[in-house]
Each structure stands twice: as C-alpha cells, then as structure tokens.
C-alpha cells in the first residue's frame, strides 16, 4: 500500500537555521571570554584572585625606604708601623680593650739586628762628642794653669827686683842682674797677656761648641730612643679604649709596614651607613631628615655625610644617630630607615604600591567600574613614591578601586570581567 509523503514548508527550515546560528554565536562569545587574555580584548577572572586598593586622598610624604648598618661614629684603625710576622694574638676580635692594652706581637729578626747596629753607631757618636767635651775642658784647665804659673813667675821676679834694687844701688850687685830680671818680667807679662787673650777666644769658641755639642747629643739621644721605639712598635697596643671590632691577623702571617691590622670602635656614639641607588644621588643632601626603626620605635636622625662615589650603581650615605640609643645596641646590626626626600602634601591623591607597577611602569592600570563586575584598562601617571604609596599625578580619582596585583597573566587584555 502506497504511503503519501507530505512536502515540508520553507518557514520551518528557516527557523531551524536561525537557532543554529544563535547557538554558534553564543559558543563563540563564551570562548572569547575564556581566552581573551592571550589574543583578545576581554578576559574573565575571579575577583578573589586579584588584589585591589582604593585610591585615597590624604597626606603624602615622599620617603625612601632602605636598609642600613649601624656602625660606630668614631673608629680608630690599627696599622702596622713596623712589619713582621704575627707571633702572638693577645686580644680577640669583639673584645672590649683598654687604652695601651697589648693586642698582638710581631717578630722581626732583621729589624732587631738593624736596631742593635744603629744603637752601636749612635753610642759611638755620643762617645765622640763626650770626648770632645773632655778635650775642651782639659784645654780650658791647661790655660788657667798657664796663666797662674805666669802670674806666679811675675810675682817672684817683681819681688827679686824689689830686693835687688838697693843692692845694685849700693854696688853689691852688678847692674846686668837687674836688667835680666826686668827682661824676664816683661817676658812673663807678655806671655800672660797672650794666654789671657787665648783664654777669652777659646771661651767664646767653647761656648758655641758646647751648645752645638749639647744639641747634637740631644738629637742622638732622641734618635736612640726612636730606634728603640721601633722594637716597641712590634707590640701593637690599643690607642684608645673601645671594642676591637676587627683584627685581621693570623699566627705566622707576614705583615708589611702600613698594613691594616684591625680597628677599634669607640662606644657611645653611632651612625648608620646605607647604600642607595644612584638614581637618588641628585635628590639627597646633607641635613635631610630620616626615620630609623630601632627596637620597635622610630628615631629621628639626619644625613651627615654623602659619599658620591658610585660603585655597582650604588652610593652610600651616613646618618648620624642621636645619643644615647639605649641598651642592647651593637655595631653591625641592620636597621630599616626612611629618608624623607620632600615635604609632605596634605591633599595628595595616593595609590597603594603593588606588583602591577613592574608590569606597567606606572603608565596604566585596571580600574574597577562602580558595580565591581568589570575592570577597564586606563592610562595613568604616577609620581613620587614612599614605602606604602605612589602619588597619583593624573588618571585616577579618590575613591576609585584599582587592581594592584601582578598583571602578567592578562597584560594584553583591555577589559576584565570579574565574577
């Protein structure tokens, strides 16, 4: 039996086609939302996977947060005056030492032999000077003796002349005896005059020589003391009381003159030494305030010195600490500090710091819409920063919410759909 086949209507086929196209479009939209981060403009993300922050309005202090090291404000370096081999370590690193306390002993055989030779030479020169002084004194005494003898002879001859005068007058003695006596008197008088003149000249010369000899002897004695002091320098002593923070020596190690042996930190006064990025070199100046975190409190301090030499893109500053700092403070401990770069602004627009800055450089950010369901990419401009906030120059208003976590997973997207 034949079955009748009915012909389908065109309207029914069109309805089916429209439904199929709608399904395809919906599937394409879902796929775009799921994969828009890699190649599209929209990406769907759970809100809990993001970190957001509200743009605030308030006081902004431009500060720089760094890590520094507490060191003694006054440090005395120990250098080897006389070189030698380390024979004995008397004090240990980190110990408190008193002034003139022995710290270590060096041995130097060649130096000892040199000192002995030098001492012998100086002693010989001193003996030579003393011999000259003895000779000068002996000459002075001899002149005095000669003068006394001359005067004695003159006195005897004058007495003989006085006694012979009446005898010659009475014809008892020949006149030539008187003449001989007078010639002898004249001789001894002239001789005595010459001796006295010589005495005056030698006294003047001797006074100058004595002054020179004493000066030379003093210099030689000083040289002898300095020569012996070289041996004393083989024992290195503390020049002042303090903590022996460094002692860079080992037994048997050879040290040349001028070598750095260690250092002593004078207790009671401290400073903080901190490395800064060379970017801030033009912004830092002496006298700038700083806040140092010390034992749970903030200590006001100031920058006292800037070392502008750049090494590995860093330069260093010294921050003078007030006194006293209290107990439990030790040189060498690390401290957190904030350097105040500029005066604070009372009505600054501020955005909390976050990882987004590493992805955008502060040139753009994702800003949530008021309903919190979408975040759109927006151009912004950020200015100064401190440890907590960026100062917003443009692009954001107080009260807006910004995604501040990393953008590495969706940095190509223009819009984030949040759920």
Number of self-contained structural domains: 4
- The counted number of beta strands is 22
Give me the strand/helix succession: HEEEEEEEHHEEEEEEEEEHEEEEEE
Unreliable runs? 7-12, 25-40
Helical content stands at 25-40%
Output the number of helix runs.
Answer: 4
Shape: rod-shaped
Structure class: alpha+beta
Strand content: 25-35%
Radius of gyration: 52 Å
Q: What would the average pLDDT be, to the nearest integer?
A: 82
Adjacency order of strands in the biggest sheet:
3-12-15-14-13-16
In angstroms, what separates the terminal alpha carbons?
63 Å
Which oligomeric state applies?
single chain
Could you give a short account of the major beta sheet? 6 strands, antiparallel, barrel
Overview of the structural elements:
The protein is α+β, with helices and mostly antiparallel strands and 419 residues long. It has four domains: 40-60 and 346-418, Beta Barrel (conserved putative lor/sdh protein from methanococcus maripaludis s2 fold); 65-72 and 267-344, Elongation Factor Tu (Ef-tu), domain 3; 82-107 and 234-263, OB fold (Dihydrolipoamide Acetyltransferase, E2P), CATH 2.40.50.100; 110-232. 37% of the residues lie in helices and 34% in strands. The chain has helices at 10-39, 109-169, 175-232, 356-360, and strands at 42-45, 52-54, 56-72, 75-79, 84-89, 96-97, 102-107, 235-237, 242-247, 254-255, 260-265, 270-277, 289-294, 297-311, 314-320, 334-352, 364-368, 374-379, 381-385, 389-394, 401-403, 415-418. It has a six-stranded antiparallel beta barrel. Strands 1-22-18-17 form a four-stranded mixed sheet. It is rod-shaped and about 165 Å long. Mean pLDDT is 82; it is low at 7-12 and 25-40.
């Amino acid at each position: 039996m034949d079955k009748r086949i009915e012909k389908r209507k065109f309207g029914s086929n069109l309805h089916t086609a429209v439904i199929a196209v709608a399904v395809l479009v919906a599937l394409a939209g879902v796929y775009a939302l799921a994969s828009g981060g890699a190649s599209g403009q929209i990406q769907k993300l759970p809100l809990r996977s993001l970190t957001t922050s509200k743009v605030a309005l308030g006081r902004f202090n431009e500060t720089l947060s760094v890590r520094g090291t507490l060191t003694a404000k006054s440090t005395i370096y120990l250098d080897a005056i006389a070189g030698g081999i380390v024979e004995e370590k008397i004090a240990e690193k980190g110990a408190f030492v008193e002034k003139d306390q022995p710290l270590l002993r060096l041995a130097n055989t060649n130096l000892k032999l040199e000192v002995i030779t030098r001492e012998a030479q100086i002693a010989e020169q001193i003996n030579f000077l003393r011999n000259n002084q003895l000779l000068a004194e002996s000459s002075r005494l001899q002149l005095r003796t000669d003068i006394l003898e001359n005067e004695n002879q003159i006195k005897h001859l004058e007495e003989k002349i006085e006694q012979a005068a009446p005898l010659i007058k009475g014809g008892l003695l020949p006149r030539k005896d008187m003449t001989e006596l007078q010639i002898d008197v004249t001789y001894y008088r002239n001789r005595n005059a010459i001796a006295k003149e010589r005495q005056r000249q030698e006294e003047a010369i001797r006074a100058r020589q004595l002054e020179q000899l004493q000066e030379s002897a003093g210099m030689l004695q000083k040289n002898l003391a300095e020569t012996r002091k070289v041996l004393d320098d083989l024992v290195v002593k503390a020049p002042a009381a303090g903590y022996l923070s460094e002692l860079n020596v080992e037994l048997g190690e050879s040290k040349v003159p001028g070598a750095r042996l260690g250092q002593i930190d004078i207790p009671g006064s401290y400073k903080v030494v901190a490395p800064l990025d060379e970017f801030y070199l033009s912004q830092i100046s002496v006298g700038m305030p700083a806040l140092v975190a010390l034992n749970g409190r903030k200590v006001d301090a100031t920058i006292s010195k800037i070392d502008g030499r750049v090494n590995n893109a860093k330069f260093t500053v010294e921050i003078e600490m007030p006194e006293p700092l209290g107990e439990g403070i030790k040189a060498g401990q690390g401290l957190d500090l904030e350097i105040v770069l500029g005066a604070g602004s009372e009505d600054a627009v501020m955005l909390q710091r976050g990882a987004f800055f590493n992805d955008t450089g502060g040139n753009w950010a994702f800003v949530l819409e008021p309903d919190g369901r979408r975040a759109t990419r927006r151009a912004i401009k950020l200015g100064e920063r401190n440890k907590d906030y960026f100062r917003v120059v443009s692009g954001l208003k107080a009260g807006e919410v910004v995604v501040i976590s990393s953008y590495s997973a969706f940095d190509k997207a223009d819009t984030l759909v949040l759920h």
